[in-house]
Amino acid sequence: MNEPSLHKTYKQQAAQLNHFRLTGKKIVGWESPSNIALLKYWGKQGEQLPQNPSVSFNLKHSKTTTKIYYRKKKNRESSIEYFFKNERNGTFENRVKNYFEKLDVYMPFLEKLDFIIYSENTFPHSAGIASSASSFSALAHGLCSIEKELFYTLKSPGEFHQKASFVARLGSGSASRSVPGKTVLWGHTDLVNGSSNEYAIPLDHQVHEQFKTYRDAILIIDSGLKDFSSSQGHALMENHPFAQSRYLQAGKNLEMLLLALKTGSEKLFAGIVESEAMTLHALMLSSNPPASLMKPNTLAILEKLIKFRKHSSLEFSFTLDAGPNIHILYPHKSRVRIVDFIRNELVAFCENGSWIDDEVSTGPKQIFYDI
Length: 371
Fold this sequence. Notes:
Number of strands: 14
Strand content: 15-25%
Oligomer: single chain
Order of helices and strands: HEEEEEEHEHHEEHEHHHHEEHEE
Low-confidence stretches: none
Shape: globular
Number of helices: 10
Distance between the termini: 47 Å
């Protein structure tokens, strides 16, 4: 595959990102959405590159807000403090430190700064609603804002968000998709010009207006920590007996999904999206060792949704990420009937009757604070 390598480009540019003037403490903030994958990415290669392309919707209300204080480091070692919901979080702090080490080759100025990072989500953390996607996207956009401020680089929105997607990918693959756009593609495919394994691009110009009104009802079956991480799940694909068949399937499904999105065919869309969700969980079950993230109430709700669609004749679809929680994707015109069904039939199966009334939206945005 011959495509331009941003890895080489950013590595070459890094030599210019060393010397800067900075006095006092500065602050930058970004709000970044979670995204729900329609076409799933499950399996990695190289430096956090996907084995197959993936497509997702950005969400509006399920998001991470990250505020970064930075200043020139006081001691030889750079200091990073990470707070989640105003409490020091050592686990994620270590993950961020490891992440910054990965970025050193592209952003060498990071090791010359001290950081205090405050982050919070509007949705349950680590429950399979792509919290790492929104977290690393918000963090990556913040780091790109710091680069722009210190070195006057990344002047155009295209340059800025491309590097933010590239940088976010190194923390979490799905984070690369939390960039501007309602519908986003990550991964190289001959079907879409400009697509890349190194960063994500918006697909909005190829999407029917019908899907731009879509909503996402997220049913919280279990908000607790998953039994295993997505990174562990991706690793299981390395020796999976069905890996190559899966990647071929994903390529065919991508072609059909792009057709559905372009033509507005909700029936075709639902068939592909639901097949992708079930394939993801089937791959976990058939891994060695096998793994399952579904819960009994996950299966109970899926059965009710299938019966409801048959009897109501409504067009909607369901999907799951790597977790037990269910996303119901539907057009705004069906909102009243879908919400009534959730309240009357489904909340009894949700943890504490909990669900998130979300919708497709346009991606991250910068937040400005007074220091």
